[in-house]
């Protein structure tokens, strides 16, 4: 959901706070009532994502004054896209995978994928062999592509 | 990787920050907040329950405190002299009583009820008037010495030695004010007490301990003494008049004084 929010807000901290708030609201409303929670949403996933989307759009609208008119149309496009939610799940898995990489490997991975550096350049800057870089990259990509575990299990608890 | 996946990876990589969106951390934080909320809720519940309990205790205490605690002084066959919490002295003639709320008497008010015949020496307190409720009527006092006689059914009389007293049929009607040497009688059902002309001050002798005679003829004096001591007194000589205060102790001594002063002879039977 944070990744989903990121598409709207482009800021990690705002996204995190917003999602946390959504969760708290959800919890308060449906899960904290002792006895039979009435009106429990049929699809928590849809409900929660809708909540995040609405709050993000509200936030963007509030921030109008800057060049947020661009943000708003982009945001609305993203929101309308049916695949956005699933894409966010994938992105979340990737994020967690990167997070779980050992420090050095992550650094190399980011230098390559984010900063667009060539393996040779990376090797030089870090003072290691190109082979090492290649190795690390292979392992990183493997982890990112298949990284399922943690995110999914926690997500399943809620959904 | 598909195109879409590549796009996603790009998005992730471009925005990646370490230490953010850590699911485990988020859950921990969530649990922490929730635990705090739970504690807060529990604490709130405790506070409310304690408050409710305190209020209940408070109400109970108030009810217990508000309930009056009456003290009754009653005399049997002898004169009973007692001091009330405000230093007022009450002398109860036989078969009389005085009742007051010990919780409030002296602090909030000085209200008393009485039956029979009671002599009051009311301690001075300008802030709290001394109020008496005989079977009929109402007497309010500042600081005085006086008698209320309610022993005769159907009427209440008040006789004042010292000070000032308000005597009326109830606390709301203005009555009459009696000062030293004045008396009044309230008959049951009357609107207001009637003042007595020349009240017999010696009605108070039993409490005061002295006889007061003001230009009184000897025969009536002797009649008074007879009644008080229960002995027949006769005299020979002129029916002179007496003015004076005599101790109501030894009859013979009183008689002797009178004999000497008036040059008469008095016999006691």
List the helices and strands and how they pair.
The complex is a heterodimer of chains A (159) and B (269).
Chain A: H1 2-9, H2 12-31, H3 44-62, H4 68-80, H5 84-100, H6 103-113, H7 119-126, H8 130-146, H9 149-158
Helix pairs in contact in A: 1-2, 1-3, 2-3, 3-4, 5-8, 5-9, 6-8, 7-8
Chain B: H1 3-15, H2 23-66, E1 70-74, E2 80-83, E3 89-92, E4 97-101, E5 110-115, E6 117-121, E7 130-133, E8 138-141, E9 145-149, E10 155-162, E11 164-168, E12 176-179, E13 183-187, E14 194-196, H3 205-208, E15 210-217, H4 218-229, E16 233-236, E17 241-247, H5 251-262, E18 265-268
Parallel strand pairs in B: 5-7
Antiparallel strand pairs in B: 1-4, 2-3, 3-6, 4-5, 6-9, 7-8, 8-11, 9-10, 10-13, 11-12, 13-14, 15-17, 16-18
Describe this structure in words.
The complex is a heterodimer of chains A (159) and B (269). Chain A is mostly helical and 159 residues long. Chain A has 9 helices and no strands. In chain A, α2 packs across α3, α3 runs antiparallel to α4 and α7 (119-126) packs across α8 (130-146). The longest helix of chain A has 20 residues, at 12-31. Chain A is elongated and about 60 Å long. The mean pLDDT of chain A is 78. Chain B is an alpha+beta fold. Chain B has helices at 3-15, 23-66, 205-208, 218-229, 251-262, and strands at 70-74, 80-83, 89-92, 97-101, 110-115, 117-121, 130-133, 138-141, 145-149, 155-162, 164-168, 176-179, 183-187, 194-196, 210-217, 233-236, 241-247, 265-268. In chain B, the strands form 4 sheets. A 7-stranded mixed sheet of chain B has the order 1-4-5-7-8-11-12, with no helix packed on it. A 7-stranded antiparallel sheet of chain B has the order 2-3-6-9-10-13-14, with no helix packed on it. Chain B is rod-shaped, with a radius of gyration of 40 Å. Chain B starts with a helix and ends with a strand. Chain A binds chain B through residues 2-3, 6-7, 10, 12-13, 15-16, 20, 23-24, 27, 83, 87, 90-92, 94-96, 98-99, 106, 110, 113-114, 144-145, 150-151, 154, and chain B through 1, 4-5, 8-24, 26-27, 29-30, 33-34.
């Amino acid at each position: 959901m944070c990744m989903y929010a990121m598409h709207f807000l482009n800021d990690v901290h705002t996204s995190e706070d917003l999602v946390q708030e959504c969760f708290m609201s959800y919890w308060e409303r449906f899960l904290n009532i002792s006895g039979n929670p009435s009106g429990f949403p049929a699809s928590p996933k849809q409900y929660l994502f809708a909540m995040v989307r609405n709050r993000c759009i509200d936030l963007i609208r509030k921030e109008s004054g800057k060049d947020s008119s661009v943000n708003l149309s982009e945001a609305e496009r993203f929101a309308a896209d049916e695949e956005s939610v699933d894409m966010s799940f994938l992105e979340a898995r990737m994020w967690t995978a990167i997070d779980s990489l050992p420090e050095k490997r992550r650094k190399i991975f980011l230098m390559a994928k984010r900063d667009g550096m060539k393996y040779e350049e990376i090797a030089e800057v870090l003072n290691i062999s190109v082979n090492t870089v290649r190795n690390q990259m292979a392992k990183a990509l493997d982890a990112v592509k298949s990284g399922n575990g943690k995110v999914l299990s926690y997500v399943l608890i809620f959904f | 990787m598909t195109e879409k996946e590549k796009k996603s990876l790009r998005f992730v990589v471009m925005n990646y920050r370490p230490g953010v969106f850590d699911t485990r951390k988020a859950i921990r934080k969530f649990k922490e907040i929730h635990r705090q909320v739970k504690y807060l809720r529990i604490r709130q519940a405790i506070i409310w329950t304690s408050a409710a309990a305190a209020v209940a205790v408070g109400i109970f205490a108030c009810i217990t405190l508000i309930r009056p605690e009456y003290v009754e002084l009653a005399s049997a066959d002898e004169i009973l002299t007692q001091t009330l919490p405000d230093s007022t002295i009450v002398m109860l003639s036989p078969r009389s009583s005085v009742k007051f709320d010990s919780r409030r008497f002296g602090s909030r008010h000085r209200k008393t009820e009485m039956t029979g015949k009671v002599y009051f020496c009311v301690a001075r307190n300008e802030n709290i008037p001394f109020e008496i409720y005989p079977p009929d009527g109402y007497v309010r006092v500042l600081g005085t010495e006086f008698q209320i006689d309610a022993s005769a059914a159907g009427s209440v009389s008040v006789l004042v030695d010292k000070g000032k007293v308000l005597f009326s049929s109830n606390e709301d009607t203005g009555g009459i004010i009696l000062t030293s040497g004045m008396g009044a009688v309230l008959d049951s059902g009357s609107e207001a007490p009637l003042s007595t002309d020349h009240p017999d001050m010696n009605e108070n002798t039993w409490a005061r301990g002295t006889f007061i005679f003001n230009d009184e003829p000897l025969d009536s004096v002797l009649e008074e003494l007879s009644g008080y001591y229960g002995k027949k007194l006769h005299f020979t000589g002129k029916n002179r008049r007496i003015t004076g205060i005599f101790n109501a102790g030894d009859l013979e001594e009183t008689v002797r004084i009178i004999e000497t002063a008036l040059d008469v002879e008095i016999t006691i039977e």
